[in-house]
Structure formats: C-alpha cells, structure tokens
C-alpha cells in the first residue's frame, strides 16, 4: 500500500530490521540500549534487541502509517 511506504536509508533500515517501534527499555532491558541506533541515524534514535525508536521528526509519520494500516486492513475484509 503506497500510504505505508516511506523513503529510508538502507543501512539504518537494516539496523531497524523487524523490531517493534518503541523506546529502549520498553520491551527489553534498558542496558542493551544503543543511541544513536546506527552511525548514519539521527542522534535521537535508539535501539535494543527488540525495539527501535525512530527520530522525533518522523515518529508522527510512523504512528500515522501504522494507524492507517490497522484501520484499513483490520482483517475483516
């Protein structure tokens, strides 16, 4: 769905992998937190073994994309 696609740096996207969008310490132990999440990522990104926090300037876009996909494809179709 085109409403869910966003341009991304391939290296940073690889660091995000298939992790949940969340702050460090929410899903996993805080001691495994890395910030920034990747050398090419913004300074306010974070990651641990199970979660990834996108930069503040993109968090609203990520939330809207996830909400759109949840509402549009709710599994009842």
Can you describe what's shown?
- This protein is of the alpha+beta class.
- It has helices spanning 10-16, 56-72; strands at residues 20-21, 46-47, 51-53.
- It is globular, with a radius of gyration of 13 Å.
- The two termini are 15 Å apart.
Number of helices: 2
Regarding quaternary structure, how should these chains be classified?
Answer: single chain
**Could you spell the SSE succession in H and E letters?**
HEEEH
Shape: globular
Query: Which sequence of strands runs across the widest sheet?
Result: 1-3-2
Count of DSSP strands: 3
Helix content: 25-40%
**Major sheet summary line:** 3 strands, mixed
Evaluate the radius of gyration: 13 Å
**Low-confidence parts, pLDDT < 50 over ≥5 residues?**
none
Mean pLDDT: 86
Distance between the termini: 15 Å
Query: What share of residues are in beta strands?
Result: 5-15%
What class do helices, strands and sheet pairing give? Answer: alpha+beta
């Amino acid at each position: 769905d085109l409403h869910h696609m966003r341009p991304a740096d391939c290296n940073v996207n690889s660091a995000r992998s298939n992790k949940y969008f969340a702050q460090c310490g929410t899903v996993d132990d805080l001691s495994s937190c890395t910030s920034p999440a990747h050398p090419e990522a913004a300074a306010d990104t974070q990651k641990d073994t199970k979660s990834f926090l996108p930069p503040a300037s993109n968090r609203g876009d990520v939330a809207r994309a996830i909400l759109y996909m949840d509402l549009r494809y709710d599994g009842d179709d």
